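Lab notebook, page 48
Experiment: co-folding of the full assembly
Goal: obtain a model of how the components sit together before planning crosslinking
Operator: M.T.
Materials (sequences as entered):
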Amino acid sequence: MTPAPTTDNPFAGDNSGIQKRETAARWALRIGSHIVVFTTLAIMLHIFVKGAPVVFQSKWPFVNTQFLTKLPATLHVIEDKQGHRIETDVNGADAVKKKLGDDFRSEKTVSYSGGGILGPIVGTALLVVVSVGVALFLGVACAIYLSEYAKHGKFLETVRLAILNLAGVPSVVFGLFGLGAFVLTAPVFVDVPADRSVLAIPLGFTTLSFEGWDTCVLSGGFTLAFVILPVIITASEQCLQAVPQGFRETSMALGATRWQTIRYSVLPFATPGILTSSILGIARAAGETAPIMFTAALAFKDKLPWQKDMPPLPTDASIFAHWEQSVERFLGIFTESVQALPYHIYTIAAKIPQNEYSERAQYGSVFVFLVLVASLATSSILLRKRLRAKYRW
Amino acid sequence: MSADLSVSTSTEPLIRVEKFNYAYGDHQVLFDVGLNMESKDVTALIGPSGCGKSTLIRSINRINDLVDSARVVSGSIKIDGVDLYSPDVDVISLRRNVGMVFQKYNPFPRSIFENAVYGLRVAGIKDRHDLEEAAERSLKAAALWDEVKDRLHEMATGLSGGQQQRLCIARAIALQPRILLMDEPCAALDPIATARIEELILQLRGQYTFVIVTHNMEQAKRIADRTAFFYKGRLIEEDETMTIFNHPRDPQTEAYITGRLT
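Observation: model returned without errors.
Model output:
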């Protein structure tokens, strides 16, 4: 038996405070990160478990098409004496009652919880299209000016400060701004200005009257555009700055003007990032409630924006014969008020008496909403990957 | 009389830098630089980092105008007697006549062909045939044609570093400029690629007036007719390259070329 070696390990850790603090710091940071992941998972799982059964079903076509293709309606729940419950809409209620006859025990109505959520989906889609269109145009223009034209100095600092502050404005303030600016005072062409018109400029054939666009997709879309503008400007500017300065110098050294340089050698390489940020802007715009409450969204509307009381277009002639009317009707979509998903969720979660039926509608709507937003985020990541692979330097 | 006149114009330098003072904001980087560069000569600008040689070369095509705070304090740079900083000079047409190749080879992430004809495209030339001809001519001049003629429409970023830099030279000479400015054209290249660029410059010598900034004194010896040494924003000495390296007049020049001044 040989004696155990007694030499000291010169690299043994000491149990001093330094090591304990190291361990404590690592655990604090790790726990913090885990809480973030856990919270995200908890939200997703909860919505999935409660919401998926509303949207999906076990029978063909596996999707609750009614929920996705019908407008919200009042749900009638009729109970017979055996305790069976029959769900129907307002039209079906009488028929069910007649059929039950003496068996009828009670009838309960739940507002907004029947039908589907097509109205809010369409409304949100329209609002997103308008807001992203406006915000991309303004935001990219602003970012290009700031990044490529403006000289460093007072003005640039002021603009940056303004953008930073714009990002910090509470969304309900944006809503009020939209109400004042777009709903009540934005300019329109009319034959006869309204009494409340702030300023009417006669142009001869028509009048430019500052009387507002009313509560409509356009007002809401413009308001939302200003909500997401700071995000788009900041992100676009970063993307432009990420394009190597050498591209600009080379391009201009080859005799290109500044605009040619931007057009051919800066913007194409910044586009992947700009698109990504704009898609994240979509998610943000789709999710905002306060800015559209005063400007575009209604708690309830029984028509889609293109369903108006208008004589149908003659079907015998080709569409081109009536293109003016067609265009007018198409544009008319944007001057209608709509329902929107976040506001609809707010309504059915906070504005009506709660019961199992309203809860089902809530979870279904939230589930659809989350899926829409998540798929937008995913597509932005995929798009960025594809474009990045195309333009690498 | 007319013979005298022609003699006097032929001795007039192509580029004349006179009492040129240049600053970034309040920080002056060039002091009273006076330098003449003859047509078709290869002039090397040498000196330690921060001596102002890059600023000078970037002032000759006014690309330094892109730097926000950059400004001419006084003095002038004249090409054919025209002051480049006078208000009636159009920088776009100036840059078409004064090409530039940068330190970091930076072709656009486009096809080789599109890179070669970029300057022509932004000048408004659309005719496909003209562009193809120009691309072939400039790629041949840059000794790149044989390597890329079968893949003109592949991405330029797929080329090797040396090829990319030669593409940048082709891109510059596609506009048929009179002057070619090169700001450390080989700084990012390995010795073999460097040798090919030097070979190319020697081939092109006599067709263009070259102004080359370099940190590599051997390179200056190999390719330059004349060499100018800059130190702390001032032109210390300018002469025939061999004179500068063999019999420098200024002790600072001698210290630099023998490696004692950094």
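Interpretation: The first strand of chain B starts at residue 15 and ends at 24.
Next step: discuss with group before ordering constructs.
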